[in-house]
Structures are given as C-alpha cells and as structure tokens.
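Section 5.1 Outputs to date
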Amino acid sequence: MILNPLPPPASTLAPKIDHLFIAMAALTGLVAISVALLMLIFVVRYRRGSKADRRNPPSGAFWLEVGWTGIPLLAFFIIFLWSTAVFSQYYRPPHNAAPIYVLAKQWMWRIQHPNGRREINQLHVPLGYPVELVMTSQDVIHSFFVPAFRLKQDVLPGRYTYAWFKQTRTGSFTLTCTQYCGTLHYSMLGQIIVMRDADYARWLATPNQEPDIIAQGAVLFRSAGCSGCHAPGSSVHAPELRGLYGRPVPLSDGSTVPADDTYLLDSILEPEKQIVRGFAPIMPTFRGQLSQDDLDALLAYLRSAEVP
C-alpha cells in the first residue's frame, strides 16, 4: 500500500496525476534501491582482504552496458511522454469550460461568476461541469491550490494565469495559498463547494444585486471612452475589437502576438508596449484609473461575442 498524504481525488485529472506520481516514485525508487544494493554487494565482496579473484578483470561487457543504459533510458522516456500528455491536458481547458474570475489579494480570494455573483473565500460549482479559472493578483504572488483536485497554479500581479478542473464528487474541498504572501499567509484559506445541479441552480438563482460581468464590461466600455475610438463608425483610426480575442495580431515591429488576456491587459495599461501594425501610438494609458474589478469586466466583455 502506498501512502498518499493528499485527500482522495475529486477531479477528472487528479487520478491521472496520482498515477503519474506513483509511477515516477516507483521508477526512481527502483533505480535508487538497485544502485544501493549493487554498491553494498560490491563493497562486501571486494572489500580489502576478501578472497575475491582479482586476476584478469574484464575490460568491458558490451551488452551489460547497453542494458543498464538503455533500459532506464527507455523507462524514463516513457515517463516523459506520459507526463507530457498529462501536462497538455492540465493546461488545456475544454471549450465548454465556464470562466470564473479569481482575484487574489492579501489575504483573501475574491471570486466572480459570469452572472455577476461574487464570493469571498468560497467557490460554488456544479458537479460534473468543467470550470476555467481566470486569475490575477492585486498585490504579491499567490498560489491557488486545491489538494483534492491536484490543482495548483501561481497567481501573479499584472498578468493573468489560468487553471481548470472538472469535479467528480460533491462536497466541500479545501482551497489554500501555497506561496508565502505576507504575515497572514496562513489565514488565506477557502472552500470549493461542489453541488448537484438542482442545488447549484437554486444557489445561483438567489437575487443578485449586480449585472453579469459582461454587462458590467459593456457599460464600462462606453463610460471609460473606449467606444469613442473602437466602435464602428468612429472618426479615430483605432483597431477593430469585434472578434479580436484569440486572433493573431500583427505588430509594427514585424512580430505577431495572440490576442489573449495578457495582450488585452497590456493594451489597456501599457498601450505603447505593443503597437498594432498600421496604427499610430495614440491610445492613452488607463493605469491607475481602473480597478481590478473594472479590468476583469472589460476583459470578459472583450472575450465575449457582444463587442460591436
């Protein structure tokens, strides 16, 4: 029996990560034990004063050398391919994953659902539906860790990081920060609450005081003046934003970047960092003018299909 210090797996990826970890531990343990045993045998057999025959020692053993080199190499190469496949699944969310925005700050997790519902140190999700976390930090580096899901992702200030999971059991699962983030780091705890569909629908249907996050972004898009330059028919020569998210963007220096969340965030806060080919660097910076909630709402709007 192999002891596992983590709680029982509760996501689709957790068993795959456990199996990979056990295989890596078994392989490295087997190599370490084999080397230690051979060392012990040689130390005892060929110790000073032993009756071991040291005449005419062999100068080489081709197949033995091929065996002890090739077999471990093949085993570790299999582990490499296996871990690459798991890594690819770990960082590639399904297309139907629901985006949930996570803001980490000393010392709490603030979470916003697409319908505008907000939570502090809790995240309610329905059983069996994939969830994509879009995460950023307001201050220092944090780390989003859910042991039962085998999910861990650093959360960084000034950029977005992503993680996803598909839960397989109902219940309450511990969420913690595993990156030291200040004097109250130990208290940065939360819960992932997995509910059955009917229970989640009732929870989600409770009265919400705010519009959904995309509607918030649409209002902010107009009130902050973005529509004055980027809306159709504007007299200002500015890049078109409709359908921009996910497309490659040609830059004035000849390079191309994907229009992901990081690119959009840089365009809002540091517009002169990456100039779109064919456009003048005339966009003002909004650094210090928009809160992180505002930025999350704008990005959700730009990701959606509602941009005119």
